[in-house]
Specification:
heterotrimer, A alpha+beta (168), B mainly alpha (219), C alpha/beta (370), B: 219 residues, C: alpha/beta
Chain lengths: 168, 219, 370
């Protein structure tokens, strides 16, 4: 269950520089499946984390938006739904959301905070398009322009996010 | 051959011992910069130069390791391999293996020593030490040292200056690149070039700038 | 002949240097890395340990039988294993910094899985950590309570008995499996009564993308061994019997209250208690018959389940969000205290309502999942 619309065998070869970069290596280790969460943050994406971030940031720029704006809107929706776990709420024009609680906390792979678990499912009532995000994924978008690797459970393509939120 | 390619074909310009230790130092650091002239040690150069603080740490670690290992390898070469040569031991091929082993062992030893002596230093420098073992500039320095020893008759002190100069050159190069990369953060780079792309272009331009030092020191 | 000699000599030279270096490194390791015996003083002499240095503080304490809580098994990600190191902790390790607030750094709080024992140390540890044990148990029974909640009954094997207060939790170890490279630990409130000392019950709800709950739901089978440690936690019935109790929970937040109510019934603790349990639809409810029966049998206990879903024509109980239901039922909070267990969003919203009714913060006790 992913948000990515890429074909399943999307694959980019490993780039050379990653092997000797301690920061990158540490990040990849924390983002691997089974370390912080079951599926990890990278999916089947072999690109270095910096490249994933650069590529998504460029897309956000092309949309004429900032990650800050997108994250703020997601945060708004999160705060509207998390006092009422399990209940579907209207959160905007043609937009409804439901918060499913999850017991426990999850640290950020960038080692800059610990966040509650749980997920919000967003649904456009007109197109039926859905998208799922978590408190941690909002932080990753806001602070790091990190939308997660292709194939990750909570990856959101910036274009898709803008479309669902009606912000394009 | 074009002037650019001829640089690669040149022998390291190094001075005879009589010309002074300072000349050895400066030529190793500038005119024969191991990274910008000889193109060794690129991998950590590209990846660690992202942050000024790590570049500084890595640079210092490289200076230290290169200085010590060139001297150690010099002793291995002169006091083990050279005496065995008459018996048919091929010094040229064996030195490659032995130098690598000495470098790896030395780095391991350093890691332990630093952890014991200064935890603070270990935390800031420690992560770079295992990376240095695979830095080809370190091995390269030792191999160039052998060329200098056989052609110019270097002694221990000369080798020490040579090693230190080589490390210093690498340190200068990575600090320069890191400084430039900090400025790059505000610049408008085409997405396709972000990361390794623009870094290599800059490195190339820096290398061209260092060409200016060629021919400065002639003995 | 010459060729043979030169080959042998080359091999000898190469081997000699390599072995020499290896020997040097071994000696260096023995001399430099060995930290000798270190004296660890805990709580100003309450406990004194004499340990061999070189391991992390967390694992050193563990091998001495003192269990500091840890969810990530020492990988430096969960920040559960905080310990106050008054002396001998050395400089702060870079991996600790993101997990500590500036006040904690000032108070000498350290992440015990990231610091090594290299010299004598003085520590300050909360008293109750001394009664924590590591247990090996067997999964005796697993039962589906709802579509995404299971009840586990674990029989304790070694040690055979556990002592705890209702409201406390244990940590179970999800072993390495599939894509999961290393064991992780996750906390669950004990839902059984303390009188059942040789077994414990847990209420586990599937967490999306969760490492442990995926293991529990997809792989764990009756008869499998389970490692756990505990009991931990400060969440428990207060000592002030004069106050009426309000319990609020949702989902797996039922666990500590299921333990508390059965304990109270067994021990004849007759404190006035109203238990509000929130869910969305009837299929999310569980233990309803048992709690309804207790509600009838015990004059001082009332069970109020509430559903927030729309279109529930057959539901005759309370409707709406749990906070709305509490708001309707409670008017004057001056003689009451509240116990909350659930997600941080639900707890924060409930606290707002309770305070508006006049229950002060120091009489609101909560066990926040997050």
């Amino acid at each position: 269950m992913t948000n990515s619309t890429d074909p399943p065998d999307y694959h980019v070869p490993k780039t050379y520089g990653t092997r000797q970069d301690p920061e990158e290596q540490r990040l990849r280790n924390r983002m691997a499946p089974g370390v912080l969460c079951r599926d990890g943050f990278l999916g089947h994406d072999h690109r270095p984390v910096n490249e994933i971030i650069a590529s998504d940031r460029a897309e956000v720029d092309r949309l004429g938006l900032t990650s800050q704006q997108l994250a703020d809107r997601l945060q708004e929706i999160l705060e509207a739904t998390d006092p009422a776990p399990g209940a579907t709420r209207d959160v905007g024009e043609n937009l409804e959301a439901k918060f499913t609680e999850g017991m426990g906390r999850i640290p950020s792979p960038f080692a800059d905070g610990i966040f509650p678990k749980g997920e919000v499912e967003l649904r456009r009532t007109d197109t039926g398009e859905t998208l799922t995000f978590t408190p941690l994924s909002v932080h990753l978008i806001r602070e790091h322009d990190f939308y997660q690797g292709h194939g990750s459970r909570y990856r959101i393509d910036p274009a898709r996010l803008a479309r669902v939120l009606g912000m394009e | 051959m074009t002037p650019a390619l001829s640089i690669l074909a040149q022998e390291p310009i190094s001075a005879a011992p009589s010309a002074g230790l300072m000349i050895i130092l400066i030529s190793a650091a500038l005119t024969d910069n191991i990274l910008l002239t000889r193109f060794l040690g690129m991998c950590p150069f590209l990846s660690v130069s992202k942050q000024l603080k790590s570049a500084f740490g890595m640079g210092l670690a490289v200076v230290f390791v290169v200085t010590c290992t060139t001297v150690l390898n010099f002793w291995v070469y002169r006091y083990l391999l050279v005496p065995l040569e008459p018996y048919g031991v091929p010094a040229e091929s064996l030195k490659l293996i032995l130098f690598i082993v000495v470098i790896a062992g030395f780095v391991q030893f350093m890691e332990m020593l630093i952890e014991r002596v200064s935890l603070g230093l270990y935390f800031s420098l420690g992560i770079f030490l295992p990376l240095i073992t695979v830095n080809c500039a370190i091995l390269g320095a030792s191999l160039f040292m052998v060329i200098n020893v056989t052609s110019k008759g270097f002694d221990t002190l000369d080798v020490l200056m040579f090693g230190f100069g080589t490390g210093l050159g690498w340190f200068i190069a990575i600090m320069l690149l890191s400084g430039i990369r900090q400025r790059l953060k505000k610049a408008n780079i085409p997405p396709a070039l972000e990361g390794p792309g623009i870094t290599l272009i800059i490195t190339g331009i820096m290398a061209m700038a260092f060409v200016v030092f060629q021919g400065m020191i002639k003995i | 002949m010459d060729a043979l000699v030169s080959i042998l000599l080359s091999a000898a030279a190469a081997t000699g240097v390599t072995v020499g270096l290896a020997a040097l490194l071994l000696v260096a390791e023995r001399v430099l890395i060995s930290y000798g015996q270190c004296a660890v003083d805990i709580n100003d002499g309450a406990k004194r340990l004499d340990v061999k240095g070189g391991q992390t503080l967390l694992s050193t304490l563990k091998s001495e039988g003192i269990f500091i809580p840890s969810a990530c098994g020492g990988r430096g990600t969960c920040a559960y294993c905080k310990v106050k190191v008054l002396d001998g902790g050395g400089p702060i390790v870079p991996t600790e910094l993101p997990l500590l607030s500036p006040e904690e750094v000032r108070d000498n709080v350290r992440i015990s899985c990231q610091i090594k024992v290299r010299n004598d140390m003085r520590l300050a540890i909360p008293e109750e950590l001394f009664s924590i044990r590591e247990f090996i148990g067997t999964l005796e029974r697993v039962r589906d309570l709802t579509h995404d909640i299971k009840e586990l009954t674990i029989r304790l094997v070694d040690p055979e008995i556990i002592e705890f207060r209702p409201g406390q939790y244990i940590q179970i170890e999800a072993p390495a499996y599939g894509d999961n490279p290393e064991p992780v630990y996750r906390a669950y409130s004990i839902s059984s009564s303390p009188s059942m000392r040789d077994r414990i019950e847990l209420v586990v709800r599937r967490v999306p993308n969760g490492i442990c709950t995926t293991w529990v739901f997809d792989r764990l089978r009756e008869g499998d061994p389970i490692r756990l440690n505990g009991p931990y936690g400060e969440f428990r019935l207060s000592d002030d019997a004069s106050k009426k109790m309000i319990w609020i929970a949702g989902g797996s937040g039922m666990a500590p209250f299921w333990s508390m109510i059965r304990h109270m019934q067994e021990q004849g603790i007759e404190r006035d208690c109203t238990y509000f349990f929130g869910a969305v639809t009837p299929r999310d409810l569980f233990y309803v018959e048992e709690l309804a029966r207790l509600s009838e049998e015990l004059p001082w206990f009332r069970f109020v389940p509430a559903l927030s879903g729309k279109d529930l024509p057959d539901w005759e109980g309370e409707k709406g969000l749990i906070t709305e239901v509490v708001d309707r039922h409670i008017q004057d909070g001056s003689d009451k205290e509240a116990y909350l267990c659930g997600s941080s969003g639900m707890i924060d919203a409930s606290i707002k309502v309770l305070r508006a009714k006049g229950i002060p913060e120091d009489r609101i006790y909560y066990d926040k999942f997050n």
